[in-house]
Amino acid sequence: MNYQLIVAVLFLSGSMVGAEHAVSFKHGIGHVEVEMDGEPLTTFYHGAEWDKPFLHPLRTLSGIVVTRGFPVEKIEGETTDHLWHRGLWYGYEDINGVDFWRELGEDKTGRIVSRSSPTTTTNRHSGTLSADLLLITPKRKVLGTLREEFTFSASGDNFFIDARVTLSADRGVSLKMGDAEDGGFALRLADWFRQDRGAVLLNSNGLVGTENIWGKRARWVDYSTTLKRQKVGVAMFDHPHNPQHPTYWHARGRGSCVANPFGARAFLGDKSQDGSMTIPPGSRLELRYRVVVHPGDAREADLERLYTDYVEGR
Prior knowledge:
There is one protein chain. Strands 6, 7, 8, 9, 10, 13, 14, 15 and 19 form a 9-stranded antiparallel β-sheet that branches. It contains 5 helices and 19 strands. The protein is 13% helix and 40% strand. It has helices at residues 3-20, 210-213, 264-268, 298-301, 303-311, and strands spanning 23-28, 31-36, 39-45, 54-56, 88-92, 111-114, 119-122, 126-136, 142-155, 158-168, 175-177, 183-188, 200-203, 220-227, 230-238, 248-251, 256-260, 277-279, 284-295. Mean pLDDT is 93; it is low at 1-19. The two termini are 34 Å apart. It is globular and about 50 Å long. By secondary structure, the protein is mostly beta strands. Strand 3 (39-45) and strand 4 form a beta hairpin.
């Protein structure tokens, strides 16, 4: 093979790799569809009918759905607990005493509402969706703002979502993130990821099972199981720049996994602890996470290497 042909082959191979993971967006009323190489990955829902925005469903690159359908989709035999557990989302139980986690009606719990349509950008290897949101109390007061930014990319058979959640105290008052158990950056996985159905829950410290990883601090948590005869896993990474890193994990055997840096007293059961954090007026707090949808279990996916890649900006 001559030099010119070798160069041509390498160029075409690089082009094919880039095209294989091209991200695109389709904007609709109250939602934005996310596709990779023309195939659906997820949809960002931000319409007024929802109390907070969310990504639903999440899929593997081969098209297998890994998140629960309820309440967006009604699937026979699927669990129907916790109406506010939808795909991938952010919410918190105690922001200035207001519950932005549960959804008990506009007069009882807060809402996270879009202030404008999401914006999207793409490049050769990834696509980013950004949404600006308002934190609205049951008394219709805006406490502050929230910005969610999701960057979608892939490498090999792994699908990545890099999330930045920015809370801004830009309404003249502080935002206090109380020490609470419920809330944070959250996933609700399909029922096949339930521990009582054979799923394996593992954290970065090597601890296995919800009884050992719930309320514990770790750099990452992974759920793996077998779906449609394929071994599949979903991991969530906590970035070292986040407060209280490594974070506490509200990781339940039912398939709900939440990174919560503020719940020291709630998780440890120690009244002398206080994990709350106050964002002064005019300031902001940025939280960063990565979700990895991968084939195989944590060992086969080499999550430690993937975590190092994340920390080093790859």
